[in-house]
Amino acid sequence: MKINPLAGKPALLEILVDVPQLITAYYTGIPDPSVPEQRVAFGTSGHRGSSFKLAFNEWHILAITQAICLYRKRQNVSGPLYLGIDTHALSVPACATALEILAANGVEVMLAEGDEYTPTPVISHAILTYNRGRKKGLADGIVITPSHNPPHDGGFKYNPPSGGPADTVVTSWIEEKANALLEARLKGVNRIPHAQALRAATTHRHDYLNLYVADLGNVVDMKVIRGAKIHLGVDPLGGAGVHYWSRIAEKYQLNLTVVDETVDPTFRFMTVDWDGQIRMDPSSPYAMQRLIGMKNRFDLSFACDTDHDRHGIVTKGEGLLLPNHDLCAAIFYLFQNRPKWRKEAAVGKTLVSSQMIDHVTAKLGRKLFEVPVGFKWFVDGLLNGSLGFAGEESAGSVFLRLDGTVWTTDKDGIAPCLLTAEMTARTGHDPGKIYHKLTREFGEPAYDRVDAPATPEQKERLAKLSPQQVKLTELAGEKIKTMFTHAPGNDAPIGGLKVVADSGWFAARPSGTENIYKIYAESFQGANHLHRIMAEAQTIINDALAASPSKPGIPSKPKRKKKP
After folding, report:
1. What is residue 513's predicted lDDT score, i.e. its pLDDT?
2. Closest Cα partner for 537 from 552, 523, 553, 551?
3. Least C-beta-crowded within 10 Å: which of 124, 244, 263, 355?
4. Nearest to 370 by CA among 464, 486, 448
5. Which pLDDT does position 464 carry in this prediction?
6. pLDDT at 540 over 50
7. Which of 50, 147, 284, 394 is catalytic?
8. Strand pairing report for 478-479 and 493-500
9. CA 212, CA 220: separation in Å to the nearest integer?
């Protein structure tokens, strides 16, 4: 694994994004829809890209927003649309563009008071709060964010009335319409000037911050946190929740310190990630160096990514917890401390999350719901309360309210952070200690993920992998128990392959947002066994891609994202 020499160090001036040039490229660049990389493409988390690469320009936002307006009309979605942004440089201009289209189409738009940044879970919370008890005139939302992506990226995603990420049927329809508008050079796009859109009778202001904060006590036991007087540290990483944390501390009288409230679209205050890029990833030990260095100042500390739908937990004893460890501790605690939840409420996990979750779920006597990568698969279960908890290995999770009803149907980084404070206050053990208690019972797995570049053609080939293409009968010395391309929980295609043996597994899939593929693996026999699994998985992937016209671009040893 080759780590960039800058990894974990403060960002140097020469790698900072030139914000004026980025914004200029947004307004002046015109994408060519005949070039695949310049078309509208909804991955697992909406359309993402950089204006420098003609992948996220004003034309994209004009086309996508008009397509959403057409979709709303087609589906009779006539309630307000909740519109939120994060702190990436491209989010503000994209929001201005979107408002011009929404207002021209007569959509009731809810903008944040004071143009406050708005986390992804806050948009989901607002949609669900409005829709509760309604059968018609339902609300939906748009979140303008590329999540933890580098500062030069922009992102745009649609949340339908269910409050969570739109499913593939919805995004495919919007994507097709948006690309048709690009091909027609925006003919059919309704637009009015921004100043007129702001004054429109359909444009309203909404107090996202205070309404969300006031409701947090219904999903996390704030009284037990306050009573324990534990000292909490928070680093918003310059993201959309930057002003939420101090309001949370004030509202619930918590001993909570926000270590930095700086907002800077260059994110120059970050330590750079493993590959030398600035990335606001709260699960990366390189990006989290600042907070890790403060771990002894607090009983517990945490951070969220730029749109605050993912989280990272730092403890005195462990430093930064691996996301899978935090998920296991949360599941173990929640299902023993939420007496109003339904007895049949299940645990939801993505198929690339740790198998330790399976063991913890079985110990609790709960059902496991294993789905493909993508939080959209959890939306229905969270809405009807059949899922008590839903989580994914990339540090995203959400859980029900104390009374067993839905909180959000999108990932919420804020609530899981506060949950770790609740469990620490109530049990006297932080999530790192709780996880190690579980490993004494089930063993301590080694887990890893590697990423490697892949062309769109190679990604397509990998997504169509089948068990018949795997010639091996053993995985790292153990008989292969099962291979599947559809998730056990809902039989949905995983867009790749998962191979399982008694004490280890691997899964391979193309990324839905970047031109890379990913291999995930885990072993309950330690690091050496894990390395064998990884090597054999790489052989399988190389064989599957061997017939690709672009096969020279595939490295024999992809770069590893995290240490096992």
Report:
1. 65
2. 523
3. 263
4. 486
5. 86
6. yes
7. 147
8. unpaired
9. 13
